[in-house]
Amino acid sequence: MYRYSNGQISLADFKQPVGMKLKESNRWVKKAQTIPWPEIEKRYAALFTNLKGNVANALRLSLGACIIQAEYGYSDEETALRIQENPYLQYFCGYPGYDDEKLPFDTSLMVYFRKRLMPEVLGEINEMIVRDAKGRQVKEAESKDDDDDSDGQPRTGGNSGTMIVDATCAPSNIHYPQDVSLLNEARENAEKLLDVLHDPADGKKPRTYRKRARKDYLKYTRCRKHTAKMTRKAIGKQLAYLRRDLDAIDGKLSL
């Protein structure tokens, strides 16, 4: 189940130890104040259909931890430690005040954060951030135009300046050139093409070893840690299967 948080608090309301003075100009403070947390939280709460059971971590902490991890490339353990040690990151994650007594969450929960924040959900969240930023920019432009009119100065019209939008959690459907999954996808497409080109009247279909190739691919992807040697070996195997399929396709096209 899920319970809504208290929303965004101002930096002045953030409880700080004596002698600590957080700055409004800090980028994490600015970023926290520009993200439409309440709107995003409504979308996130819709993922929890069960009204019973343990209460899930707040969206502010879950999404905040994922953004911090994507920003710096930290491991799950390092992300939790950085949040525990840094008051600016705690403010970004929705803490009511600075607390370095314990970790913000068990590091294993990062896996569940990423599972809940699927690419589709992250895409919607990114659209909310962009829409909110555009709305703020329009309001600022209108307010500026009103001020110019009140001063008796002519209006210049149009928008100006640069809008910076945080897209650290935006999904990206891009494969790396050496990605094994890209080679597996190419191999499967080649096999489909070979199935279309094959005429039963021509005799036996060329061997593609598709079951073995699929098995090799799954064996690689199911490993939690991929060494450079394992990756090179997996890429070499998929390239060999793909090369065999392409040769067979060329032979069919030549007929």
Question: What descriptors fit this protein?
Answer:
about 260 residues, mainly alpha
Topology, element by element:
Elements (H helix, E strand, L loop, with lengths): L26 H8 L2 H9 L13 H14 L3 H10 L1 H6 L16 H8 L2 H32 L29 H18 L12 H12 L6 H27 L1
Helix pairs in contact: 8-9, 8-10, 9-10
Detailed description of the structure:
The N and C termini lie far apart (62 Å). This protein is mainly α and 255 residues long. The protein has ten helices and no strands. Helices cover 56% and strands 0% of the residues. The mean pLDDT is 82. It is elongated.
What's the order of the H and E elements? HHHHHHHHHH
From the alpha-carbon coordinates, what is the Rg to the nearest angstrom?
Answer: 26 Å
Query: Uncertain spans, ≥5 residues at pLDDT below 50?
Result: none
Distance between the termini: 62 Å
Query: Describe the biggest sheet?
Result: none
- Beta content comes to under 5%
Please work out how many helical segments DSSP would assign: 10
What structural class do the secondary elements suggest? mainly alpha
Principal-axes geometry comes out as elongated
> Could you report the average pLDDT, rounded to the nearest whole number?
82
Helix content: 55-70%
